[in-house]
Write a structure and sequence with these properties.
With 413 residues, this protein is an alpha/beta fold. It has four domains: 96 residues, no CATH class; 51 residues, no CATH class; 118 residues, Rossmann fold, CATH 3.40.50; 109 residues, 3-Layer(aba) Sandwich (Rossmann fold), CATH 3.40.50. It has 23 helices and nine strands. The termini are far apart. Bound molecules: iron/sulfur cluster (2 copies).
Length: 413
């Protein structure tokens, strides 16, 4: 009966209060409060592209054990897993968890390219060996003719190729000592590809942590957080077990993550034993950690820049700690800080979504780029690597807030 309630679909609803999310698709009231928050509804303006309809499909898969049609499946797969719907749902639907369960239940069989991608992010040694070849390709001058030939499109590699950037080849070292009076020791989560493709952020994190008095350990045995696997119906159990074992073996005050996409996954590791609890207890977002431990005497250089803050979905809807970024940026004297308009709408990156649904993702990116243009900001900051890469593809200036903070450290730090 709630399907026909008089809902203003243009109105963005505020996140509802605290309390556990409910992993039961049958609890959906079909009230429609989630509809205006959904980026795919924004694009298509049809009920099939709403969280409400997807919850119904998920219920058919998980509760009724019914087959779903190709059409229903298409609309379900169009979901970006941004979890904006979860944040506003008055029934506290655990949409993210339900979506992953439905994907697992559907027993998704990946294609050849997807299989290869899963294998590569599972195996950092293979990935490392590939990097020199990538550098050769980027230097070879083959990029333009290959793009022009249409071959990349035929091989379904065009979207991934467009995101390529020069990788860092050398691994980070295992330990970085504090550069101020030592206060403790932390471990840095680097995951699968960030060491190669987001080295600037990781180096900024290390520099800042060292500057506030923390030794930083980077355990080489760590691996991918498992998000890409789990959200695409594949088992992430081996990756989860490995990370828990690697970080629990370290004598550190905290395990720090820098990308909110990975952080969201790490914070929801479903291991309820002692090891899982110990892992989650020590887990901390870099922005929150720096804010909590920032020494009064550490002064940053002033900056007259105008900065717009992009709030990644994983930060807004899962970690819910976006205010830490604003508070941290306020450590920079003179900086002008504003939220990017429409921060509740996903930028389109959505983990692997930018590769699997390039048309939808591209439309959402266009909206975000319009908001960036309208902001007239000198710089946009985003605490998630995936969003920054996607927004920067083909030109853009989005970086992790840590990079800005690290540039403004005193010269001896
Ligand atoms: S998912 Fe939540 S907000 Fe959306 S229709 Fe169901 S109960 Fe309402
Ligand atoms: S997770 Fe995002 S894209 Fe998916 S249904 Fe919810 S709001 Fe829509």
């Amino acid at each position: 009966m709630f399907d026909f309630m008089d809902i203003d679909y243009d109105e963005a609803y505020e996140p509802v209060g605290a309390g556990p999310y409910i992993p039961d698709a049958g609890e959906c009231m079909r009230c429609g409060v989630c509809v205006s928050s959904c980026p795919t509804f924004r694009l298509f303006q049809i009920d099939e592209e709403t969280p409400r309809r997807r919850i119904r499909t998920i219920g058919r898969i998980l509760v009724e054990k019914q087959p779903v049609s190709a059409e229903e499946r298409k609309h379900l797969d169009n979901c970006l897993q941004c979890r904006a719907c979860e944040s506003v749902c008055p029934s506290r639907m655990a949409y993210g968890q339900l979506f992953d369960q439905a994907q697992a239940e559907l027993k998704v069989k990946p294609g050849l390219l997807a299989k290869l991608a899963f294998k590569l992010i599972e195996n950092k040694h293979w990935l490392r060996r590939l990097m020199p070849l990538l550098v050769v390709y980027l230097k070879s001058g083959l990029q333009k003719p290959l793009r022009f030939s249409g071959l990349l499109k035929k091989l379904r590699l065009a979207e991934a190729e467009a995101l390529l950037a020069k990788p860092a080849l050398r691994p980070l070292v295992v330990s970085y000592p504090a550069r101020a009076a030592k206060r403790g020791q932390v471990a840095l989560f680097t995951g699968c590809i960030a060491e190669h493709f987001d080295r600037e952020t990781l180096q900024a994190a290390i520099q800042l942590l060292n500057a506030i008095g923390y030794d930083v350990l980077v355990p080489p045995q760590q691996g991918c957080c498992g998000a890409i696997h789990q959200h695409n119906g594949q088992s992430a159990a081996a990756l989860i077990d490995n990370n828990i074992a690697v970080f629990n073996a370290l004598n550190v005050d905290a395990v720090i993550h820098t990308a909110t996409g990975c952080g969201a996954m790490l914070s929801e590791y479903q291991a309820d034993d002692d090891a899982g609890q110990r892992f989650r207890q020590r887990l901390c977002d870099i922005n929150e950690f720096l804010l909590q431990h920032w020494p009064d005497e550490l002064q940053l250089t002033a900056s007259g820049l105008k900065v717009a803050v992009h709030e990644p979905c994983s930060q807004r809807n899962v970690l819910k700690n976006q205010q830490a970024v604003y508070a941290l940026l306020e450590k920079i004297p003179g900086l002008s800080i504003a939220a990017l308009a429409d921060n509740h709408i996903c930028c389109g990156a959505g983990g692997s979504y930018m590769l699997t649904h390039p048309d939808n993702a591209g439309q959402l990116r266009d909206l975000k780029r319009r908001a960036i243009g309208d902001s007239e900001a000198d710089l946009v900051v985003s605490a998630n690597f995936g969003c920054a890469v996607y927004l920067n593809a083909g030109g853009g200036r989005v970086e992790h807030p840590l990079q800005l903070l690290a540039r403004l450290l005193p010269v001896n730090m």
